Amino acid sequence: MSSRTVTVLGLGWMGAAIANTMIREGHGVTVWNRILEKSATFAGRAEIAPTVLAAVESSDVIFVCVVNYEASDEMLQTPDVTAALSGKTLVQFSSGTPERAREAGQWARLHDVSYLDCTMSGGPLQIGNNLGTFFYTGRQEVFDAWRDVITPLIGTSTYCGEELGYAAALDFARLGALTGVLTVLGNVVSLLQAEGVPLDEFVPALGFLSSGFLEGALRAMTADEYPSGSATLMTWRAWADQFVQSEHDVGIDPRVAELIRDCLALGIERGQGDDDIYALFSAFGPTQ
Ligand SMILES: NC(=O)c1ccc[n+]([C@@H]2O[C@H](COP(=O)([O-])OP(=O)(O)OC[C@H]3O[C@@H](n4cnc5c(N)ncnc54)[C@H](OP(=O)(O)O)[C@@H]3O)[C@@H](O)[C@H]2O)c1
């Protein structure tokens, strides 16, 4: 692979790891960071650009890895930087919503910037270490043109197609599920502790968190006719009142339990009271 010129804007945990990997791969790297001290750690290994404009002018591909799209827009959407980006490739590594990814793609098209949006499933320790996955969206020919350069950044580089919001949506679903499960576990462990039930008693009861069960539940929720004949939402809703009360009784913050109760109530409000809990999926759908 021939060496290319790469600019990295943003040298936080992730941006610095990306820049270090590009240096290790032998590319000509230019870096810029809002707080200058972070750029200084690259002295002698990369060009340190004094401005965003100079950084963009230095390379054919520009990697942006800052806190969010707002910070990225602030840097890039000025007349001189936008003009300098024209004809180049911009890879957006900052986290954002699917809608922000689509807006960024529109802006890039308007200004003749080749654009890839990357959702990073992996942290700074995975970058450059053949671990983790990055999901890319954008035009296939742009991904192909830079595939050799971006591949060493992470264990697996997955191209997800042209729909720019796709990877961000996948990531929200993944991290939403992860944080949701961990939040509920944090809550119920408090209940166990308050009631003096040892964790060892609880762990074997978590068999339903197996991927087989979860996949079956997802398919059941999204089936044209979800399964029924088990406990109804009305039954679950009545149970949830007791769940909330059990946390009140021992002084635990009941907001997680109340949220579960309220979500079950939402399904009933939407006419699903006699259906199984899988009906909750349609309760969360957009109202017409
Ligand atoms: N860390 C992870 O494990 C991880 C995993 C997946 C995705 N991500 C995403 O990767 C992105 C970077 O995360 P990180 O962990 O590297 O964060 P970080 O260490 O906090 O770095 C944030 C970077 O954003 C810059 N920044 C913030 N506001 C700015 C502004 N208004 N203008 C210009 N630059 C600005 C900071 O510049 P200063 O140094 O000047 O403040 C810094 O370079 C985020 O979108 C994050 O969600 C992170």
Secondary-structure topology with pairs:
Blueprint: E1 5-9, H1 13-24, E2 28-32, H2 36-40, E3 47-48, H3 52-58, E4 61-64, H4 69-76, H5 79-85, E5 89-92, H6 98-110, E6 114-121, E7 133-138, H7 140-150, E8 156-159, H8 166-195, H9 199-202, H10 211-222, H11 233-249, H12 255-269, H13 280-283
Parallel strand pairs: 1-2, 1-4, 2-3, 4-5, 5-6, 7-8
Antiparallel strand pairs: 6-7
The protein binds NADP nicotinamide-adenine-dinucleotide phosphate.
Bound molecules: NADP nicotinamide-adenine-dinucleotide phosphate
Number of domains: 2
The amount of helix comes to: 40-55%
Oligomer: single chain
Shape: elongated
CA-CA gap between termini: 52 Å
Query: What fraction of the residues are assigned to beta strands by DSSP?
Result: 5-15%
CATH architecture designation of the largest domain = 3-Layer(aba) Sandwich
The CATH fourth-level homologous superfamily of the largest domain: NAD(P)-binding Rossmann-like Domain
Q: What structural category arises from helix and sheet content? A: alpha/beta
**Which strand order spans the largest sheet, edge to edge or round the barrel?**
3-2-1-4-5-6-7-8
| Sheet with the most strands, sense and barrel status | 8 strands, mixed
Mean pLDDT: 94
Work out the helix count. 13
CATH topology of the largest domain: Rossmann fold
What is the rounded Rg? 24 Å
Instruction: Please count the beta strands (DSSP E, at least 2 residues each).
Output: 8
List the uncertain runs.
Answer: none
Run of helices and strands: EHEHEHEHHEHEEHEHHHHHH
CATH class of the largest domain: Alpha Beta
